Amino acid sequence: MVEQWRHERPDLDPSSMAVFARLTRAHLAASRAIAATLGRHGLNRGEFDVLASLRRSSAPYRLSPGDLARALVLSPAAMTNRLQRLEERGLVVRRPDPADGRFGVVELSGQGRALVDAAVTDHVATLDRLLDDVPEADRAGFTDVLAAVERTATGPE
Fold first, then answer.
1. HTH marR-type domain location, by residue (predicted)?
2. Which of 44, 83, 115, 128 is buried deepest, with most CB atoms within 10 A?
């Protein structure tokens, strides 16, 4: 593709197209692998993200729905939908906030904790496998490069 563009448009440097084509293909392949891993645990990516956010919050593994929505960049309605599905499965419990009974909190159930612990173990193994061909010494620099692209892409236009 790059060589074809160089031939057709020698006035342009199409090398950035190659970077983003690779990034897109890597993202799609990684997304499929992640979905397959989480699917073996009966979870989709959104459900895993909620459970993982609660698990990372430390005991008692409890957050407000608003904090979860902000952390996952979701609308309140989308968060409510996810929480309802997870609650129906017994993976989370909604309770009054012990500090202020007027506000609710979402707490990881024992079943939810066991599930997310198993899923995250497999998830990390999948991610490690996806990085098998990236030398350990290059991973921090690779992360920094991707963060720079993300900052540029999400910055002011």
1. 16-151
2. 115
